[in-house]
Amino acid sequence: MQKSEFTQAEEQMIQREFEALLDDYARTPHRQKTELITHAFNFAHKAHYGVRRLSGEPYIMHPLAVARICVREIGLGSTSICSALLHDVVEDTDYSVEDIAGLFGDKIAQIVDGLTKISGGVFGDQASEQAENFRKLLLTISDDIRVVLIKIADRLHNMRTLGAQPKDKQYKIAGETQYIYAPLAHRLGLFPIKTELEDLSFKYEHPDTWQDIHDKLEQVKAGQMETYEHFSEPIRERLTSMGYQFSMKARIKSVFSIWKKMMRQQCSFEDVYDLMAVRIIFTPNESMSEKDQCWMIYSAITEIYRPHPERIRDWISTPKSNGYEALHVTVMANNGQWVEVQIRTDRMHEIAEHGYAAHWKYKTGESDDSELDKWLQEIKEILAHPEKDAMEFLGTFKLNLFAQEVFVFTPKGEVKTMPLGSTALDFAFMLHSELGEHCIGAKVNHALVPLSYRLKGGDQVEVLTSNSQHPQKEWMNMITTAKARNCLSQYFRREERRYMHHGEQLVEDAINMDSELRANRDMALQKLLNHYQMRSPNELYLQVGQGTIRLNDFHDIVFPRRSLLSYVPFIGKRNNNSQPLKGENDQPQEVVKPKKGQPHAIVLTDENFGKDYILSNCCHPIPGDEVLGYLDERGTMHIHKIDCPEANLLKTSYGKRIYSATWNTHRVQSFVETIELKGIDKFGVFIQVLQAITTDFHINMRSINMSSEDGIFKGTMEIYVYDRSELDELLKAIRKIEDIKEVRRIVES
């Protein structure tokens, strides 16, 4: 951060932003504490005076922007506004948490302290730091959730101003935003923020694709709004005649959600027909329940337009786990376009916009436990026994952050919410950890099913158990929920500790039974580790305890019989000159770190392929793909596609090892790519495909796999291409063949 005096124009800009914050606050129903907020602003302004962000603007503009997001977009009050204004003071200045407590009270100091502890971003450089930092963030859910809400506001403003950061930092910040912050905002019910975080992450990771979809969206917006006006007019007349006070608005899909749909359905922008949804927000009459009135409005709409029978979403009878309530129906407009209509009351709308803050505002009593409360309780349970490995910890927590839901029933008819894709085993662990550990199967709708059965909406599930049943390692492949994974991890850790203790006792007994071993105990243990190529005694104890390693020949391993030939006391790999080779199990290699001031960027040329970088097998990047580099512990640069799932995890976890990468190749090296085709099985169509590949583009093929059924053919072809542009041109040419309906590039790792 830079430091210099502020100009008069900058001071006026700061003051205008603060007055805008007070105006936002004045429009809220919160008890007005303007003096306290003014005091916090003046204190923060003085503490950050002269400091500038990378963009060059005064640093105080960042805390002001975060505070405005808290009040305007999340609906928080004076305590959160003050904490947002002060959130960087302790980290960036000489003031302490005690100073904050003395000036602003313990509650604001506690929140600022929570924000300071996680100020380095959720993720650090080392695995243990990542787990601990992330755990600190999540622990504040049980301590004071306002810490998490302010941190999300902080991340939103950082994403809005990400353009000032270098490319490698953009990848890191966008990656962890997409991986954790957007799902966390979704889970806390902050839908507008979740949508913007996703969109901004996508913009910085795929700028060209984002711009292309954005420009196309701008071109069709006018037509969409014209459709909306025609569509909404008869609905307005009907609701007015019913005596309702209401507002209607059109909601256009975000660039990211359009792109996701294009990827999921393998279609072009022009084939995405549901670009627009209509939202109705009404004030309910007190004489009837909100639920009944939502269904009355649904009936009125479906009298005007024909509904899609399979696209009704009733989030009123059973709200989503993040508190979301609404009734969704998709109807056919007069122009032949499907339009989704979302029906909400004022209360439902506020919860949908402000999430957790509004959820608590409408709580009615102690027993009013929503799915959101249950989720928060589940998070506390996970945090009580976190994974030792940071990546596992992140994966366990994220498992059910962004999951869609299904509703299932217990044998007594209680409704339970489960993430989409959950199995019978997940359901058993959701009910109780002991049920899960002893589960042998389930009855779904009175029929016996295996542990791996995937639950469907409306299933009635009865868990079957046996005291002789215990968790198996393969169960980890049958579960999808964070709770089940956490319970199984705890169980296996307990079992490992038991085996280790037993194995340690067996090793000690073996040493004590042999006088020569007993006299050289430490040396004997080290030789045993070298022989089995293990790093720590615990690894040895575990395998001995499990019976994988038997100690019958313990003495011969430690004191082998000497040969008549020369004896070299080394156990391990050797080269032809009988010199020890240092390998993975000897001493760890030095981590190659970038030199200070060295830019995090790499140019990918034909000459340095295989020397300075390698292409990752998980996503098969080729020249022309948007890629990044990851420098591993051994100094090897791995090239991944930017949207590769593995790369997303690396971006969130090892930000300082991420490099921006650009291609500068000259069609020297060819790469194997797999394309998938589907189409109408007419005579000659496959000949046209082969002609396009071999004659028009002079591309070689490695393999072909085709099949036909009921007049439809589908198959895959492995071809050699030089780069992305050649592949894209080929796919475009194949799509022009009349009877080809789908063709796409697929990754097979």
Textual characterization of the structure:
With 749 residues, the chain is an alpha+beta fold. Among the domains are: 2-190, Hypothetical protein af1432, CATH 1.10.3210; 208-354, Beta Polymerase, domain 2; 601-664, no CATH class; 671-746, Alpha-Beta Plaits, CATH 3.30.70. 47% of the residues lie in helices and 17% in strands. The protein contains 28 helices and 21 strands. It has a 5-stranded mixed sheet. A hairpin with a 5-residue loop joins strand 6 and strand 7 (338-345). Helix 3 runs antiparallel to helix 4.
Average pLDDT? 81
Count every helix, treating DSSP H or I runs of 4 or more residues as helices: 28
Q: What is the number of beta strands?
A: 21
Q: How would you sum up the global shape?
A: globular
Just name the CATH architecture of the domain at 2-190: Orthogonal Bundle
Classification by helices and strands: alpha+beta
Question: Kindly, what is the distance between the CA atoms of the first and last residues, rounded to a whole number of angstroms?
Answer: 43 Å
CATH topology of the domain at 2-190: the name is: Hypothetical protein af1432
Supply the CATH superfamily name of the domain at 2-190.
Hypothetical protein af1432
Regarding CATH, which class of the domain at 2-190?
A: Mainly Alpha
Give the fraction of residues assigned to helices: 40-55%
Strand order of the largest sheet: 3-4-7-6-5
Note the beta-strand portion.
15-25%
Low-confidence residue ranges? 120-131, 562-597
Rg estimate, integer Å: 31 Å
The major β-sheet equals: 5 strands, mixed
